[in-house]
Amino acid sequence: MTDQLTVTVLGTGIMGAAMARSLARAGHTVRAWNRTRAKAEPLAASGARIADTPAEAVQGADVVLTMLYDGPATLEVMREAAPALRTGAAWVQSTTAGIEGVGELAGFARDHGLVFYDAPVLGTRQPAEAGQLTVLAAGPSSGRAVVTPVFDAVGSRTVWAGEDGAEAGATRLKLVANSWVLAVTAATGEVLALAKGLGVDPQNFLDIIAGGGLDMGYLRAKADAILNDKLTPPSFAVTTAEKDARLIARAGEQHGVRLDVIAATAERFSRAAAQGHAAEDMAAAYFASFEEKPAS
Question: What's the predicted TM-score (pTM) here?
């Protein structure tokens, strides 16, 4: 199998568009589709061919990569693509779809003769643009020679989490990792909101933890986004963060694990979205601590 593939990317939002550019940079033939075509059009400058329909996009593809909002949206788009899917093609499913969602998608793959890979990614806009994501993957070793060039193009490393994508081993790992990411994001917003409410200079807080065990680059990145009004363009939007938080809470509930922090975090994202911050970076959950957007 040649390393130069025809790869279809369905869903060209923040992550999908960046992944498509990385694939084109690596020399693959890239076809791209998005429900709102205007979001896909800029990819033409990177050499991607923009398709009008999912079926047109997947025709003859070696690998189909989906990066859509959630499981139901992915299933809907793949059903639209179904008439043109090539039997034996690899499907790299990178949407955070939840455990149940992955099972449904794997069932579709089985019914249509696709080789299914559960392959969500860790990282946001900047590492995606640089091709430095971490790919979490589960799927048959017999087909990995086909998908490895795709993973190598979009990521700096691949962590394998099982031989059967239908078991959602990669998605389970992604939910665990995202529970930490979202908790830190929410905690960052709360600590800065508390500082504001108590009249404390937030820089004093950052200074007293500097270089110690409580300090971390992610905290400082999200604090900078909040304090310096860098919430757009988002690295990871509030609405998507809420969706993932609810998937994590549901997974915990179904497996006998009570997750108070992630449940509360989902509500913070929901409040921030209702206040008008839905399309901003998830650090905008900060505003959920106030009835109205506080004066700067």
Answer: 0.94
